[in-house]
Design goal:
With 461 residues, the chain is of the alpha/beta class. The chain has 2 domains: 2-51 and 391-400 and 424-445, Urease, subunit C, domain 1 (Roll); 53-376, Metal-dependent hydrolases (TIM Barrel), CATH 3.20.20.140. It has helices spanning 68-81, 104-115, 132-143, 168-181, 197-210, 215-221, 224-241, 253-264, 275-279, 299-310, 345-356, 362-376, 408-411, and strands spanning 2-13, 17-26, 29-34, 40-45, 50-53, 55-60, 84-91, 122-128, 149-153, 189-193, 245-247, 269-274, 316-318, 394-405, 424-434, 437-441, 444-445. The strands form 2 sheets. Strands 1, 2, 3, 4, 5, 14, 15, 16 and 17 form a 9-stranded mixed beta sheet that branches. The protein has an 8-stranded parallel beta sheet with strand order 6-7-8-9-10-11-12-13. Helix 1 (68-81) links the parallel strand 6 (55-60) and strand 7 (84-91). The radius of gyration is 21 Å and the shape is globular. The two termini are 21 Å apart. Bound molecules: zinc ion. Residues 59, 61, 90, 320 line the site of zinc ion. Zinc ion binds next to loops.
Length: 461
């Protein structure tokens, strides 16, 4: 007999389909999926709502603008209320995280301690590689710390504070190291922030002199060209070294097209975009509150990215979530980049992709947000799958009788604004379970977080 039975559900099997049925949960895992599973200690009637695996957000930034333990608490609450059950957070040494470019040996343990007991979601960490000394730490981070995604920052090259070791040679060496480890660690991937810093520097100087103060000026300051050049370089290195890579936050039609060419030539490249490149444009009413790197693009790029999503070419979608305040975004050039988005990944993409554009089915959306995101980050099938043995991380998406508009309060981030304010939603998450425990429902978030650090790659046992 199961501990908990979710009855009267429409089960969303990622990439496969939607079937009426029930889910049995025991000891934090899914124990059975099917029809007429019998009785359980507790039962919840879902009245025909969709239920699928919890969403894996592959790209968040905890502790970037606030203390990590505070971000962990408030932003993981934002996440679970939106159906996200696993957050992959990006972290690195150097300002604003640590004094100086210290080794990860000690610093990473301290970061994990700060998140301990605060997280409502389970979490994994992607670490930024910044120095020659960090290269030597890669085997230990991968084998002992369970970190299987590492980041290279093309846009920090040449920056006096953190970029002195970064150049194409360093990137090549890092890719070779990842390739060397990858046969034994199948989930290892190098994630590359792809903006050419020299094009950005030139274009930004020009736009600042011209006095622009809107999203269109910011787009011109970090043009699509910068993404295309960086993708070309990373794609050649990916091909030559055979290192598995992730290209996060692809923002433009040309960036996607270039990346797709390398995939066609045989590069092991997972292409990821972010919620905002599918839902915001330089014309959005949010204005500079929507400042983010890479920059938000024009409507034609948004359309091109949706075509790529519909064609299955854009494997992953994340939020690039960061929490900051409206007062920190009053002027374009000094405004802190990024904003809160993790809790809107599922409801807003369901609205845009399934309801409004009719480009995705529920199973194809969950295929991206649960299965693909979990696979690319070494978490599948413990996460992202509706199968016996998987963690009982589940989200119920309920249909509203009246559409609801996104408000700052409904996002539940510590951030006091949302570039998505006013967006209409017809479906919202009503229940979120992490390892079998109900962590969020209509009454709010339940209990202190019991989110755990995920030592990757995760197997089924
Ligand atoms: Zn990011």
């Amino acid at each position: 007999m199961s501990d908990l039975l979710l009855k009267n559900a429409r089960l969303v099997f990622p990439h496969r389909g939607v079937v009426d049925g029930e889910i049995g949960i025991s000891g934090g895992r899914i124990d059975s999926v099917g029809k007429d599973l019998g009785r359980a200690d507790h039962e919840i009637d879902l009245h025909g709502a969709l239920v699928g695996p919890g969403i894996v957000d592959p790209h968040t930034h905890l502790g970037i603008y606030r203390a990590a333990h505070e971000d962990a608490r408030t932003e993981s609450e934002c996440a679970v209320r939106g159906g996200v059950t696993t957050m992959v957070t990006y972290w690195r040494v150097g300002e604003p995280y640590t004094d100086g470019l210290v080794a990860y040996g000690r610093a990473f343990g301290e970061f994990r301690e700060r998140l301990e007991g605060q997280m409502h979601t389970d979490y994994a960490v992607n670490l930024g590689m910044l120095t020659r000394a960090h290269l030597g730490e890669v085997p230990d981070l991968v084998h002992r710390q369970g970190v299987t995604t590492l980041k290279y920052f093309a846009h920090y090259e040449g920056r006096a504070d953190i970029g002195h070791d970064l150049d194409t040679g360093y990137f090549f060496a890092l890719a070779e190291e990842v390739a060397r480890l990858s046969p034994a660690v199948p989930a290892i991937r190098l994630s590359v922030h792809s903006e050419d810093p020299y094009v950005v520097r030139e274009a930004t100087d020009r736009e600042k002199k011209a006095g622009g103060n809107d999203l269109e000026a910011y787009r011109r300051a970090r043009p699509e060209l910068a993404e295309a050049i960086a993708v070309d370089r990373l794609g050649e290195v990916a091909l030559a070294t055979r290192a598995p890579m992730i290209l996060p936050h692809v923002s433009s039609a040309i960036g996607y097209a270039r990346a797709h060419e390398f995939v066609a030539r045989g590069a092991d490249l997972t292409i990821e975009t972010s919620l905002h490149y599918l839902t915001l444009t330089t014309e959005s009413p949010a204005g500079i509150l929507a400042k983010v790197n890479p920059a938000v693009r024009r409507a034609e790029d948004v359309e091109a990215l949706w075509s790529a999503v519909a064609a299955g070419g854009l494997g992953c979608i994340g939020s690039d979530h960061a929490s900051n305040l409206r007062q920190e975004k009053s002027e374009l050039w000094s405004a802190k980049p990024a904003f809160a988005g993790t809790g809107l990944l599922l409801p807003l993409l369901f609205e845009e992709g399934v309801v409004r554009r009719r480009l995705l089915s529920p199973e194809s959306l969950w295929g991206i947000l649960a299965e693909n995101n979990a696979r690319a980050h070494g978490l599948f099938p413990r996460k992202g799958a509706l199968v016996p043995g998987a963690d009982a991380d589940l989200v119920v998406l309920g249909k509203l009788s009246e559409p609801r508009r996104v408000t700052v309060e409904s996002v539940h981030s510590a951030s006091d604004y949302s570039p998505y304010e006013g967006r209409e939603l017809h479906h919202v998450p009503t229940h979120t379970f992490v390892r079998g425990e109900l962590v969020a429902d209509a009454e709010g978030v339940r209990g202190p977080g019991h989110g755990a650090y995920l030592h990757r790659p995760l197997g089924l046992d």
